[in-house]
Amino acid sequence: MDEQELIRAITTEVLRRLGGGAAPAAKIPVGVSARHCHLCPEHVTALFGPGQELTPRAPLYQPGQFAAEQTVTLVGPRGILERVRVLGPTRPRSQVEVALTDAIRLGVRPSISDGSDLTGTAPIVLVGPAGVVHLHEGLILAWRHIHLSPREAEYWGVKHHDVVRVELPGPRGLTLNNVLVRVSPDFIAQMHIDTDEANAAGITCDLEVEIAR
Amino acid sequence: MDEQELIRAITTEVLRRLGGGAAPAAKIPVGVSARHCHLCPEHVTALFGPGQELTPRAPLYQPGQFAAEQTVTLVGPRGILERVRVLGPTRPRSQVEVALTDAIRLGVRPSISDGSDLTGTAPIVLVGPAGVVHLHEGLILAWRHIHLSPREAEYWGVKHHDVVRVELPGPRGLTLNNVLVRVSPDFIAQMHIDTDEANAAGITCDLEVEIAR
Predict the structure, then answer these.
(1) Fewer Cβ neighbours under 10 Å: the N or C end of chain A?
(2) Which pTM does this prediction carry?
(3) Under an 8 A CB cutoff, do B172 and A144 touch?
(4) How far apart are CA B79 and CA B94, in angstroms?
């Protein structure tokens, strides 16, 4: 997170706590999610050793979320991906999010998911310094989505689980036609796309977008 | 190339030679270009040895073009990409086309180009079994484009160097807003996108599209 993002994150968090939800902004910042995993407490122990906990390395834009110092190696039937960042805090179920380009390197074919139901999603092997976890399901391609607070959702005229369109500008400009809206008091406005989507559009890191009306 | 594609390629080529340009089809097939390079004759010699020529391995969809048996390793300041396919026949200037995800692995930042002018494009090192070529310019991200014969261009109501929109369907559906039209009697209708674009849209290999009116 650079200084600009940090200032924005702190400002928005202060406003959120004062006002019960971030004040709606005229534009929605874009966050590019590189491949990463969320781990349950049992898997943190299995991968990093007894008594080990996730160590925050940098706060993420969404309040309370962080990139951990820990990384894992993903092992698929056709290839591996090293130094895959673990995000915190821990979750009830482990979940690994990759781009389709990553999946092809691994030799797996995950489906698109919003992470709410991991049943039947693809398997993957995670290797850490203290052990191995064979995840029988939980590897997904994240459904491109927009986080909004309830106030922001009201401002944009959308509700939880709406599917909207968002235009990405530039020489490789494209319009994302199926963007999932996710609304929660814990969120602040941000669109999450993966590295394939960001690279296909050739977007720069300070991009802000609008929901197409 | 699978059987279906082969039948289509042969049929279209026969029609093209009989009629001076492919008969317009109601849909345009999509070809996904993985990273690849085009080489000049001097670089074929430098990389594969004196007297060596590109050996066709499989015909491509565009008439006369082929994937060669030969591959090279691309070496950038931050990483390498092995087994990068060489396409034939040779060209007057060598040119390497990668997706932005590939470029990030290599540690280079190529610009978007239609390949017509390589002046000022990014450098890259190619390594073959017989030698090394330091390409001072020629590494590009290909501008997404549609090949059309003159008859097909007329059918679609577009001309050489027009920029059009194309919608890709599906759960990761998106609209490509800046697609370059390239018209030549040597072409048959096909849209070329790179692996980032294909993976961002999650498209399947038998996709056919239309130019948005």
Answers:
(1) C
(2) 0.86
(3) yes
(4) 21
